[in-house]
Write a structure and sequence with these properties.
By secondary structure, the chain is mostly helical. Helices cover about 85% and strands about 0% of the residues.
Length: about 240
């Protein structure tokens, strides 16, 4: 009874059969391609399967085949409908309802979690790149400081060389002043010795001259001087 009812429910009118026959005859030389490749029906059956049955059996062919197959399985008790069947049917219905109702929310939540995790990974990558960039800048700065240390070392060496030169010149000036002081001392000693010799000689000459002059010569010299002074005075008048 069930198979007969299924067959009666899927019978096609004659007009549909004629239209299918005309369409099949018109398009026999070219295959019918699906308008939307990748599209599915009933949530899991590909559109290409329906197009295949359409080309072979017409528009109602897939449905006839499906209903007939189910009717055959149930009528021959190949598929036994016991309590597990209803449990499975209930689970299937619940799964479909869960997919239809909870699927978008779960997909939205999963997409949000994926975006969040991706943002965290991206932020971590950017932070790591920033830290590496800062490390590179710090390394460049340290290299610049190392170059500055070399320049500072050269400046210190030059400063030490200048200090050595200044110390050398200072000691050379000290030697010059010391030698000049000693030479000046020797010159002063020679001058003093010469003055003493001159004074001693003058005193000796004066003493000898005074000792050689007699009183008579002194008197005559004195009179001569007076006479010369008188003559000079008279002449000046």
């Amino acid at each position: 009874m069930l198979s007969r009812a299924a067959i009666l429910s899927v019978q096609r009118p004659m007009g549909a059969l004629a239209a299918r026959a005309a369409a099949t005859a018109a398009g026999a030389d070219r295959p019918v391609r699906p308008e939307h490749p990748g599209k599915v029906r009933l949530g899991f059956i590909p559109e290409e399967w329906f197009q295949f049955f359409y080309n072979k059996t017409g528009v109602t062919g897939p449905y006839t085949f499906g209903v007939g197959l189910i009717t055959y399985l149930c009528s021959k008790e190949i598929y036994v409908m016991e309590h597990e069947y209803y449990s499975g049917l209930s689970l299937a219905i619940m799964a479909v309802i869960a997919v239809k109702k909870l699927g978008p929310a779960a997909a939205k939540w999963a997409d949000g979690e994926i975006d969040r995790i991706e943002a965290e990974w991206k932020q971590g990558r950017e932070d790591e790149l920033k830290a590496l960039q800062e490390s590179i800048e710090a390394e460049k700065k340290e290299q610049w400081r190392a170059e500055g240390s070399l320049m500072l070392m050269d400046a210190k060496k030059e400063n030490v060389a200048l200090q050595l030169e200044a110390a050398f010149r200072e000691r050379a000036m000290n030697v010059y002043n010391e030698v000049k002081r000693r030479l000046d001392y020797q010159v002063e000693c020679r001058h003093i010795e010469r003055r003493l010799n001159q004074k001693h000689m003058v005193d000796w000459i004066v003493k000898n001259v005074m000792a050689s002059i007699t009183p008579q010569q002194e008197k005559e010299t004195l009179n001569k001087c007076i006479a010369d002074l008188s003559a000079l005075a008279a002449r000046s008048k």
